[in-house]
Amino acid sequence: MLMLALTCIRTCLQDEPVRMVMQGQLTQAVRLAMVRLEKRPSPQAADSHALLGQIVGRSLIALGREEEAEELFRRQLRIYEMSSRACVRWMSSMDQGAMQLALNRLSRAADAFNTVADDETAPVPLRVEALAGLSVSLRGLGEYRRADRTLSHAQVMAQAHTPMILQRLLEATRMESSVLSGLRAFDEGSDAAPISVGAGLPSYSRAQLLELAGEFDDLVIARRRLTFLAALLPHRSKTEQAANIVENLHFVRQQKLSGHECECRVEAALALVGNGEAKSAHDVLESLAHDEESVRRHRYSLELKYCISRIYALQGRHADALRLYKEHVNQAMGRLRAELAQLPYSRCLEKQQMADHNDSMKMLLPLRYRRAYQYIVEHLDDRDLSVREVAAHIDVTERALQMAFRSHLGMAPAELIRRKRMDGIRKELREAPDRPNVLDVAQRWGMTNRSTLTQNYRHFFKETPTTMLRGGAPFPATPGTEPEDLQ
């Protein structure tokens, strides 16, 4: 529901159906808006018509009416075409991302959202929402750390270009990720204490969740979601926690949000089994799956198998628990191999991976200068990135920065910047789905000079970019050789 709230805020529409969606009255809002969406708009009204259609489509998904949402998204393509080709690409990708996320097809959702998130020509609010969608997709695959870093990137991007309420929704999404990571990682010897899966993520208390929920007076769908997440956290009284969870599930069912209800029931069951409440967890899941065969056919079969195996264990049915848990593990491993292999190339994720893979190098630096290293990795796409800027960021002189990097890493900050940029350019050229324009790729990594690009690329990889793309032999580094055509 937080993604739906992000869409409502991003569109800036003041229509009555949008207000009703924000208040949680999705059924009434869809009924009212569909009458308007059936009429073809004038060119002047095409943009607002397209934005309203996006909100209605996502509302239909939350209501469990995916087929109607898919049909609406197909009709919307004709409306997008009234704006521009870029609009068709952006909006249709966002629609597909929302649909695939609802169907629990996470790598496809990530691919769709990444199309917009990595497009620097897309409007900033749209890219911010796409990054949030990419983060939710990664979270579903268990990539909590990458999901959190993606959200952090979205928050930085949003600071100067989006309203405060959208920025607070990003913080709410971050809280959601923290809570859900904790639900999926329990220490058997404690009261639902999160362990390694969520390592490195910020943790939040019930009070913090409820405090942020109080900021969304006019955005009930966000407030109710945060209230539900707060109910999932351990309480002093198990009875009180179960009652709060049931109350929130009742509200979801009362609003006929059957698509969202499925996700909520799985999350509720995870919280209850972590608290040792086998009967309450069983009651919560009963409407989703009546037997193990229906569990295996369910779109959330992976999560359901885990929950039910935990319920069996709490009931003393250890053989059944072990059998179903083995199925869960095998399915999880197969899904991870398939889904993670299909994740799209993303400059945002690539920079995160650089930071992750180079933690050992960063740890060689004194504590203060690690922040400089991190700053470099996060700002490689800034063509104006300079040693002076990095030094100012950590409040040291350029000379001190140079000496620290040379002493501990064996290279100057400028050389590190060049090396990281070349690594990013090379990986994007290799992994981009279509043959990319080399100069466009280089510019996205902060490199604008054709001659400098060729010279640095040849220095590090003993070939030029176009030679690598053509699969030819390494280009000889002879003095005076003119740079190749990089188109």
From TrEMBL:
Record flagged with keyword Transcription regulation: yes
Region (Disordered): 468-487
SUPFAM superfamilies in alphabetical order: Homeodomain-like, TPR-like
Limits of the HTH araC/xylS-type domain: 370-471
Keywords: DNA-binding, Transcription, Transcription regulation
UniProt signal peptide: none
Pfam families: HTH_18 (PF12833)
This protein's record includes keyword Transcription regulation: yes
Protein name per Swiss-Prot or TrEMBL: Helix-turn-helix transcriptional regulator
